[in-house]
Design goal:
The structure holds 2 protein chains of 2 kinds.
Chain A: E1 8-17, E2 24-34, E3 39-43, H1 50-57, E4 65-70, E5 73-74, H2 79-85, E6 86-89, H3 101-111, H4 116-129, H5 145-156, E7 163-167, H6 175-190, E8 194-199, H7 202-208, E9 211-216, E10 219-224, H8 226-233, E11 237-241, H9 247-254, E12 260-261, E13 267-271, H10 279-288, E14 295-299, H11 303-311
Chain B: H1 21-37, H2 40-60, H3 76-106, H4 108-114, H5 119-145, H6 155-184, H7 187-192, H8 194-202, H9 215-223, H10 225-238, H11 243-274
The chains are: A alpha/beta, B mainly alpha.
Chain lengths: 328, 275
Amino acid sequence: MSDAELPIFAEGLEKYFGSGDELVKAVDGIDLRIEAGEIFGFLGPNGAGKSTTIRMLTTLLKPTGGEARVAGFDIARQADDVRRNIGVALQDAAIDPLMTGTELLHLQAVLYGLPKNQHRKRAGELLERVGLTAAADRRVGTYSGGMRRRLDLALSLIHEPSVLFLDEPTTGLDPMSRISLWEEIRRLNNDGTTVLLTTQYLEEADHLAERIAIIDDGVIVRKGRPTELKAEVGCPTLFVSVPADAQECATEVLERFGEIRPSAEGSLGVGLTEGPGAVSAVIRQLDEAGVTVKNLELHEPSLDDVFAEATGHRLEGASEPGNPAGAE
Amino acid sequence: MTATTAVSRESHSAVPMRVSHLAQTWAMSKRAIFAMWRQPSLVVPSLVFPLFFIALGTSSFSRAINLPGFPEVDSYLDFALAGAIVQGVLFGSVTGATAMAIDIENGFFDRLLASPSTRTGILVGRLAGGMAYGAGQTAFFMVVLIPFGLTIKSGVIGALALIISGTLLALAVGALMSTMALRTGSSEAVQGSFPLLFIAIFFSSAFFPRETMTGIYGTLADYNPISYLVEGMRDLVIDGLTWSALMRALLIPALMAIATIALALRSLRKRLARS
């Protein structure tokens, strides 16, 4: 498939804010080639440039430099054509709380030019699809966070877009709501929709996306299939919690078993080059050095390790041994 | 989300190349109108306070109509109707513009921009909502006050002219407030303009004729376009149907609307260019 035919293509995409000493490079030269029918995950912490990229690709923000095509149309010169062919669910589910679910879907149908005789049927189908039929005539202000997200998704699907942009679709949702939204995204993808989603959840990127791009400080630092990226990290990470006064001594011991990896405060991480078999030797040598081990956990390579290796720091809240997948 | 329904793809075509901007604008207007009525806590004050002021004025200033400089009127109620309409419409217009600022704050504005909708229609929809409310307010004040002795000397035609005048004023002030909403994107900034509108009304002939005013108060009222608008509307109530009154009641808000719509469109273009 040529670049022009890709559902999402970007080359050297940049967005700078401010100027002079106050210049902020929110997105600094991003390249993307997303294939038709793919779920592509954009993973990164808050402020990494994920939403800015989405806003540029959905024509809400003009790029400072570079070029991008979405659904075959140039985002700068053919913005209206791009808008006709994409579905967008932005961060925080921006929905008018005074309107009902049905009214919002009808409004969306008018905005996208659907024939009037299809409005009711289409709204009914989508409400049923996202499990909101019973709440269809209630004002959105009475909806829970999960219901708002589901309605947001339904709104973005009113015109059956071939490309769907989801900006942090599950942020702030409880685990059950998150999983049900994942199922819906997978179903959509099975129907042939190309999905670009941003997330700060490692687990979401790992389970949902076929390919991911890790973004930090406006730059893509890793790109590929989650399994391949994790395999590149190689060895598992051993996290050891030791008393504060023994950290220096413990670090010296751990360095004998592999490279020190970023970890949460109060914990030390080491990539075990000889694999899980080296754990007993680590414990023995720490004991011989007089270091009391408070806690010890062995993690197979995760996307957090990929992120840590690429950026030198871990995703916020993701590095604690008790929360290896970064689920919040 | 356990219920799963296959959405029939074959029954829907892709988004048409030409989407009706009229239908989009009408849909956004309806949204704006419904939004007004669904926020009674915001709407009621703009209906009740002008009536409260008029009731207070009618009971307190009933003998003021005999002061030198006061026009010949049957009651202070007839004199004060125009001021009440302007007061109500001005306050009501803040509500519509605040709703637009809230749309910007909570991202709904972006949802509209991400769709192939008409950009101007987003603004026009809001203004149309404000106009409908302004018309409703004007009619409401007249209907409520007629049983209390209100007499509109220009008759039905004059009453219709008053409704049109109130509608045009709602458009003018709505566009001005929308300019602020588009420039700041802040509902607080829009609501913060409320005292300015209050001052603009008080430094006009809304509650007393300019002939009774002296000093800086009188000078400001002389320069305030609201004075001339109110006087045009008032003359329709107390003098009858004259071309002079009709022109002032309709032309002044129409000219104000042309100027403020130009400002609002400029602010919309700037906001779109910024993004």
